[in-house]
Automatic annotation (TrEMBL):
It comes from Paenibacillus solani. The keyword Transmembrane helix applies. The chain crosses the membrane at residues 6-22, 43-63, 69-86, 98-117. Coiled coil: none annotated. Keywords: Membrane, Transmembrane, Transmembrane helix. This is DUF4181 domain-containing protein. The keyword Transmembrane applies. It holds the Pfam family DUF4181. The lineage of its organism: Bacteria, Bacillati, Bacillota, Bacilli, Bacillales.
Length: 118
């Protein structure tokens, strides 16, 4: 349940920051419109495979619930690092990579808070 809350909060924060921090032209810029399109899709496919793998592992009950949630958080952190790198490399003139790094920092703080409570 905590992971769904984290995804929801990060999604809302991303929409708010995109609306507040980016210019209208920068909001329309996408990685898929650059030379990094194939890397972006490959990374997305790899993320989906990892999420499906974690879901299968959690279905069979191999690990405890806290370990599964940690796997989801670590995979999300890695995806944000990858996305931030691609935005920095291919959309450097926009502020999208800065927005992704802010989301990454918030997610890391959530993760530290979550694991310190358990």
């Amino acid at each position: 349940m905590f992971i769904i809350f984290v995804f929801l909060v990060l999604g809302i924060l991303q929409l708010l920051m995109r609306w507040l921090l980016l210019d209208k032209e920068d909001r329309k810029a996408r990685i898929t419109d650059t030379m990094g399109e194939s890397y972006y899709y490959r990374g997305g496919a790899l993320f989906v495979i990892v999420i499906i793998g974690i879901a299968i592992v959690s279905f069979f009950g191999i690990f405890e619930k806290i370990t599964i949630q940690g796997m989801y958080l670590v995979s999300l952190i890695l995806v944000l690092i990858f996305r931030g790198f691609l935005e920095w490399k291919y959309l450097r003139e926009t502020k999208q990579h800065q927005m992704t790094l802010i989301l990454l920092g918030i997610l890391i703080l959530f993760s530290l808070f979550f694991f310190s409570l358990k």
